[in-house]
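Hi X.,

You mentioned you wanted examples for the new student's onboarding notes, showing what a folding record looks like when two proteins sit in one file. Here is a clean example. The first protein comes first, with its sequence line followed by its structure tokens.
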Amino acid sequence: MKNLYSILIFLFLLNSCGEFSNPFTDPNQVKQVKTQTKYLVDSQTDAEISIVFEKHYNINGELITYILFDEKSNKKSESNYEYDGKVKIEEVIEYKTNGDTATIYNKKYKQNSEGQIYEIEKFDKNGELQEKSKIKYDNLGNISEEVIQKKNGLNESKSYDYNYGNNGELNSISVKDNSDGRLLKKDSLVYSNQKIELISYDVNGELSHSQQTNYDENGLILLETKKDKSGKVIEKYRYKYKYF
């Protein structure tokens, strides 16, 4: 269950550039993902409209390239990753609408002995530190606190609270601003066979939207469906895979 909680938290944080993982992964599956592609599809016909992103992995399951596209399927940014022990280096190239390079920056992720990222540093193209994030975890492996130190001095500090059901299942996650205790985000989770529904609330505690994620028998994401607070489908995404 510990691993499940950690994965759900990163789903909650929408960490789009993290390694591919999910709570239904079968450790005995024989297929090794080489490429994961996410498509925006028509909410009625399921016809593909555009590419959202592509993720490329090495044979060890490590993310090596992440390409983000705009609504016209033009390349918006590209991240390339290198690994050195417990340190991961990400080079990010962002593009203008005409395809020219807009900016380049780097991120360094540091992991502890448990494989948890405890520090993230962001550098500009000249190697000057722009931002540093320090992350703490509770005894279940959940993120408990995140402190972001920015070059301009406008620092941020957030705390994470978790609510569990009688069977130990994670029911909700809340994020608060440590400076004033203000609620920044709250999500509830509903589980069913090969599905997770993430129900999101605004800062006033009012229902904002929901997202249902469907998985296959090997734990790979098949479909994401986002609905507004009235239950109307507003976005729908399909995932496709290539294997080694």
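Then the second protein repeats the pattern, sequence line and then tokens:
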Amino acid sequence: MNAAPTVPIARLSRNRFPGRVALGLLLLCIVATTGMLYGAAALAVKDKRALEPDPGLEGLRVPEFSLTTQDGRPFTREDLRGAVTVMDFMFTQCPFICPTLSQKMRGLQDALRDLPEVRLVSISVDPAHDTPAVLAGYARRIGAEASRWTFLTGDFETARRISEEGLQLALQEDPTRPITLGDGTVMNNVAHTGKLVLIGPDLRVIGLYSGLDALPVAELSKRARLAARALSR
């Protein structure tokens, strides 16, 4: 009876090596895939949380209103539904915080340009001077894009109700700081919030950020990006 041929040990080692490599690669793929899935799930949770109101803001919501855009169109709160909105209050004759607010809003417009889910809205608190035509001229001067950034005017009571009753942000005339206009007439200042209001697609207020400082505005930009990503999922 003939003995079975022997295979050199070196050849056996070489034959087993490819199998071990394949097994190792398979395990690496499994680990990588698991990590990717876990990371994607974690991001989804983080994004979803970006749409939830910050502590203390749970009861704040944009109330019903009817105003007019800078191009003369009617605008209601339903025009905000389904989008992530950054809102501020301003007036074109304001020499105090409004220029800074508009500058920060312009920065957000540029930073979030790639996100059609995010829109900007500025509400005038001086409708007596800020007609749609005046707001349109102001928007052009500061580089606001009409497709992304809407300016609204109407009547003072509506602006006050949105700010105070809906968002719990004070809004009132301030006769202690008169403003001299270009034609020599004088108007009272209108004291309004310097906050930028982040509004979710269901019209709830989800965040309030100072519009006067770079760091809170950067945080708002990041939050709006996360919220938009959650909205598009």
